[in-house]
UniProtKB/TrEMBL annotation:
It comes from the Bacteria. GO terms for molecular function: ATP binding; metal ion binding. InterPro entries: ATP-grasp, ATP-grasp_PylC-type, ATP_grasp_subdomain_1, PylC_N. Keywords: ATP-binding, Nucleotide-binding. Residues 120-307 form the ATP-grasp domain. It comes from Enteractinococcus helveticum. SUPFAM superfamilies: Glutathione synthetase ATP-binding domain-like. Residues 348-360 have a biased composition (Polar residues). The keyword ATP-binding applies. This is ATP-grasp domain-containing protein.
């Protein structure tokens, strides 16, 4: 079995866990990384590596299809929000037409989570609580929002990884927003449509993985953790918690979006115990490792779902109250243009091992 992971970046742990899942299931296979950056850590950690143009390049789609035609993988995953947008616009269907299982949302559903303004509308229509956003150019709505709540969040409409997200008390938000209106150049004002303002509902923040079969279907698993720390827009510390309060929310999200595989969901639970969805990322998220080291095994479920065998009954079970903390790691490898690294699609790590359950 061949598994291709695109835009894997630094997520060496996910490459290792898919390799481990193959080994433990007794499946002969390999995990191949496709990366624009030849120096990405996962390019060395994978069984092999293929370079590809940036997904913003006109050469990206033809190169992707050439790689898929060469490798003929059973399963393809992307870990980049913006690449997923490109895939959802028809390229994922071309991969599926080649027989490759590609857990990417349909175009309309993907747009609904990529565009934070549209996401709010779709979720509200589905009866899912979410903070109401307004666009920065809507001066009257912004002032009404600032006047009616204590704290404000300003963030990018098309953001990824908490890009551009800032929290302000209302009085400071009013001063900053008014200053932005008054001092913006014409070019800056044109970009106001890409900025949303919404109330900060407060409460405790949780991360969820909502899991369905890789081709879609009912919710098969819900994995939950309380966020204890953030770094560079990604969860750095978390504690696993019971999934019970989020089961209904997961089903509602699946009904609204038609999930395929896994989506990462950020939720705020305020004093009224109502979960407010603040973000949806249709991929493995940065919070998944915390439930994996506590016992869950979504890579195993992905293999079973792709190949059609029954997964272990405990694949979605994890220890409650397990605290995880990410830390720095390093992998050394030969440069792609040195003789030791030839052929170029095979990187040679200087140190490598499959780590089991004890952390990353």
């Amino acid at each position: 079995m061949r598994i291709v992971i695109s835009s894997a970046g630094r997520r060496v742990y996910l490459v290792q866990w898919f390799r481990e899942a193959l080994y433990e299931a007794g499946i002969v296979g390999e995990v191949i990384v496709i990366e624009h950056d030849p120096n990405a850590a996962t390019a060395a950690a994978a069984d092999s590596y293929r370079p590809i143009p940036a997904f913003t390049s006109p050469d990206y789609a033809p190169a992707m299809l050439d790689i898929i035609d060469e490798l003929r993988p059973e399963l393809f995953l992307s870990l980049n929000d913006h690449e997923l947008t490109t895939l959802s616009e028809g390229l994922a269907d071309e991969l599926r037409a080649r027989g490759v299982v590609t857990p990417v949302l349909e175009q309309q559903s993907h747009r609904a989570v990529a565009d934070k303004l549209m996401m709010s509308q779709v979720l509200q229509n589905a009866g899912i609580c979410t903070p109401r956003p307004v666009l920065l150019p809507d001066v009257a709505a912004v002032h009404d929002l600032i006047s009616s709540t204590n704290n404000i969040i300003v963030k990018a409409r098309w953001g990824s990884g908490s890009s551009g997200l800032r929290r302000f008390p209302s009085h400071e938000a009013r001063r900053r927003v008014e200053g932005r209106y008054q001092n913006a150049t014409d070019a800056e004002a044109l970009g106001f449509d890409d900025i949303i303002v919404q109330p900060d509902v407060g409460g405790v923040e949780y991360g969820l993985d909502v899991i369905t079969a890789v081709r879609g279907g009912p919710v098969e698993g819900v994995l939950a953790r309380q966020k204890l720390g953030m770094r560079h827009g990604e969860t750095s510390n978390a504690k696993t918690v019971k999934n019970t309060p989020f089961i209904g929310l997961a089903a509602a999200l699946n009904a609204a979006l038609g999930i395929r595989g896994s989506v990462d969901v950020d939720v705020l639970v305020a004093d009224d115990d109502v979960p407010y969805v603040i973000d949806v990322n249709p991929r493995f998220g940065g919070g998944y490792p915390f439930v994996h080291v506590a016992g869950a095994d979504v890579p195993h479920f992905y293999l079973a779902s792709t190949l059609g065998f029954t997964p272990r009954p405990d694949w979605d079970q994890y220890r409650i109250g397990c605290i995880g903390s990410k830390h720095e790691g390093i992998i050394g490898f030969d440069a792609a243009d040195t003789p030791a690294a030839q052929p170029a699609n095979r990187r040679q790590p200087l140190t490598s091992s499959i780590q089991k359950r004890v952390g990353i």
